[in-house]
Design goal:
The protein has 731 residues and is of the alpha+beta class. The protein is built from 14 helices and 33 strands. An 8-stranded parallel barrel has the order 14-15-18-19-22-23-24-25. A 6-stranded antiparallel sheet has the order 26-27-28-33-30-31, with helices on one face. Strands 4-3-7-13-10 form a 5-stranded antiparallel sheet, with no helix packed on it. The N and C termini lie far apart (92 Å).
């Protein structure tokens, strides 16, 4: 089915001196639109198309002024070269792809639909839901829709990628030293009083000195940005007056989200990265390659569906008019296809080399390893990344599950990958809530989850530990609500998980009860201290360090408003919590015993006679094998030997640290701990106690076999020190 071409030469932006635009043969590589200095090379993939038209627009983006057939085909790559006299950086374009329309065979070509280049590096114009976006006539999937969609979709834009990085390089933080801070580009600065109003909610807002100063004072090392690949909101959200705030609904994988820019998303994103790098922060992107915004067979035709539906998407073998849905979002990208691998790898290369990002967190990463229907955690895609000279050197983090059968793959990703560890999250929440029977698992989780990661040679930092993330309660809400309160989402509170392992400490939501508020504050300190003193890579959710609330909403994906935006109008309690977290981070960064490269052995290291770890009960005796399973056990002490790290620095010198004990009491009553006996002249110095709002009321010294009074629902950290005598000796 053909649609009319522009009718008059007068509509063209090209003047007579330049003549009518024409395409030369061009090159099949690289994908997308690439400015060479003398023109732009266009290349797209389609195995089943009959014809591919490049559509050019005037400077306003509203008028389609030319349609040019891509003149060359190399294998399944269609390509052409547009000389510079016909347009360069800033040129807006799209595609119309001709081919069979036969949904029963998976074919959904429809040249009435203007398609976004799958490799577009920049988008211009607004996306607007409109009936013309649908490839089929509503209610008749067998009939292609003749309505032109061009007025309602963004146009791709040719980009000049030149940028002055000012010789600023990535800090390249080692995994063992990494502290991740997950934030939303818009939500973090939208209400920040020190960010100029026109920069709030933008990439440039994160580059503002006040924002960077805050992150430096907090002490995190690595900023993980929620999705910034250009995305759109689902139709059902638009109908409710809501929006896809989180961004897990991608339209163009190569393009930064236009709404996060003042003018030029590409340049402004690079400016943000440069500023963060200069300040010592890594930048990691949360990338979404498991599905796209096109949804199922009832969704719009925006990009991949119109280029080659059966190649890009997983379709059921017995009914190719439908879509396999392992993402929960209507479709699943087909990683069985080499062309899909190639495009995704090109995309990751682009973000790593051109945009200078330091790593990627892969949303629903198990879907990337699906070969046919099963998940193969050592599938082709992971092999490709492991062998890639660029991607094997950046940080790779998996959300290690999807929604399909066999999709839960925690602990099964290859060497070189880290994983979000939900087993850690659930155990910490349940333990501090007061659930019994968890001491054994609790010990395993705080020491790096060796049961999940040690079997194939991975290290403790394969575990990304977290208490909260974007998906779920904030930390404040975790200790303030028993139930989710998602009424604002318009789904009658049916959305979001009911399995929160939350405890409101005695009242649902906001309360004036001082005892309840004090307990909530202590529970937050307990959870944060446990996180920062655990082996592995800690991840903080932005705002948890200042008591951010979502008013009990545990699925705020559609709340682009004050429910989600960080509130910078902080109370005294909020400031105190920030100071407490900053102190935790300083302790972690100062002491390698909290960020080991290797798992604990539980035995003497290298003939030293000193165990690297020692577990004990409140009475000072060692835990027995059967006691790990006791349902009533909620209190535990652990000795961490800095003398027995068994590690060396970059110059081969042994690394030594102080010796510490951590005391945990999830019981509601005070428990007195018998402290381990020390060497002569040594004492235990109290470094932190979560019973106190500042983390410690007064520094205290305790001798070996002394009692440490650990209040109910409290954590304490003590460090072994030598006492200086007046004569300069040691006692």
């Amino acid at each position: 089915m053909d649609v009319p071409r522009p009718s008059t030469q007068d509509d063209m932006t090209f003047d007579s001196a330049r003549g009518a635009p024409r395409l030369e043969a061009g090159s099949p590589q690289p994908f997308g639109a690439n400015w060479t200095g003398r023109g732009t090379n266009f290349a797209v993939f389609s195995a089943h198309a009959d014809r591919v038209e490049l559509c050019l627009f005037d400077a306003s983006g509203r008028n389609e002024v030319a349609r040019l057939d891509l003149p060359s085909r190399t294998g399944n790559l269609w390509h052409g070269f547009l000389p510079s006299r016909f347009g360069g950086p800033g040129l807006q374009y799209g595609y119309r792809v001709h081919g069979p329309y036969d949904p029963s065979r998976g074919m959904r070509f429809n040249p009435s639909k203007l398609l976004v280049d799958p490799c577009a590096q920049s988008l211009r114009g607004e996306f607007e839901w409109h009936p013309s976006l649908h490839g089929a006539v509503r209610g008749r999937d067998d009939l292609p829709s003749p309505d032109d969609s061009a007025a309602h979709v963004p146009r791709a834009e040719v980009v000049d990628g030149s940028f002055d990085w000012a010789k600023v390089r990535s800090p390249n933080v080692p995994w063992r030293d990494t502290i991740i801070y997950e934030l939303h580009v818009k939500g973090f600065t939208q209400r920040h009083p020190a960010v100029p109003p026109h920069l709030r909610g933008k990439f440039l807002g994160l580059a503002e000195p006040a924002v960077i100063d805050y992150l430096q004072r907090l002490g995190v090392t690595t900023i993980e940005l929620m999705p910034v690949q250009a995305f759109v909101s689902e139709e059902f959200l638009a109908q409710r007056g809501l929006a896809n705030y989180w961004g897990y609904n991608p339209l163009a994988w190569f393009a930064p989200e236009p709404s996060y820019a003042v003018e030029d998303a590409v340049t402004e994103f690079k400016t943000m990265v440069r500023a963060l790098h200069q300040a010592g922060f890594e930048v990691i992107l949360d990338v979404v390659f498991n599905h796209t915004a096109e949804g199922n067979e009832h969704g719009p035709t925006l990009s991949l569906r119109g280029f080659d539906n059966p190649v890009y998407y997983r379709l059921p073998a017995d009914n190719r008019a439908h879509y396999l849905n392992f993402s929960g979002c209507g479709n699943t990208i087909n990683f069985d296809e080499p062309a899909v691998h190639a495009m995704v790898v090109d995309c990751l290369h682009y973000w790593a080399t051109e945009m200078h990002v330091d790593g990627f967190r892969f949303d629903l990463a198990a879907s990337l390893g699906r070969e046919q229907h099963a998940v193969d955690h050592l599938g082709a895609f992971f092999d490709i990344l492991h062998q890639d000279p660029i991607l094997s050197r950046v940080k790779l983090i998996a959300e290690p599950w999807d929604l399909g059968e066999g999709g839960y793959q925690v602990g099964k990703f290859p060497i070189g990958w880290a994983e979000w560890n939900d087993r850690y999250r659930d155990c910490m929440r349940a333990y501090w809530k007061g659930d019994g029977g968890l001491i054994g698992e609790f010990a395993t989780r705080i020491t790096g989850s060796s049961d999940l990661y040690a079997h194939n040679g991975r290290r403790p930092y394969a575990s990304v530990n977290y208490i909260t993330a974007h998906d779920g309660f904030t930390l404040h809400d975790l200790v303030s609500y028993n139930e989710k309160h998602n009424e604002a989402n318009g789904e009658d509170n049916r959305d979001g998980t009911d399995n929160n392992l939350a405890w409101n400490c005695g009242a649902e939501g906001k309360t004036r009860d001082a005892k309840i508020n004090a307990l909530r504050a202590r529970q937050k300190r307990n959870l944060l201290a446990t996180l920062l003193f655990s082996q592995g890579v800690p991840m903080l959710l932005a705002g948890d360090e200042m008591g951010r609330t979502q008013r009990g909403n545990n699925n705020a994906y559609c709340q682009d408003n004050t429910i989600s935006w960080v509130n910078w109008n902080l109370t005294d309690a909020d400031h105190a919590l920030f100071d407490f977290v900053a102190r935790l981070i300083r302790l972690r960064r100062a002491h390698p015993v909290f960020r080991r490269r290797n798992f604990f052995q539980g035995r003497p290291i290298r003939g030293s006679g000193i165990k690297d770890i020692h577990w004990f009960k409140p009475d000072g005796s060692e835990m027995s094998d059967e006691e790990w399973a006791h349902d009533f056990a909620r209190s535990l002490g652990v000795y961490l030997s800095g003398e027995a790290l068994g590690e060396v620095d970059q110059r081969g010198r042994p690394i030594h640290d102080d010796n510490f004990i951590l005391l945990f009491n999830a019981h509601h009553e005070r428990i007195d701990f018998h402290l381990p006996i020390l060497c002569e002249g040594c004492v235990w110095q109290a470094e932190l106690d979560t019973h106190y709002h500042a983390g410690l009321e007064t520094d205290g010294h305790f001798g070996g076999d002394d009692l440490y009074p650990l209040e109910g629902r409290t954590l304490a950290l003590l460090r072994q020190v030598e006492i200086d005598m007046p004569d300069g000796g040691k006692k």
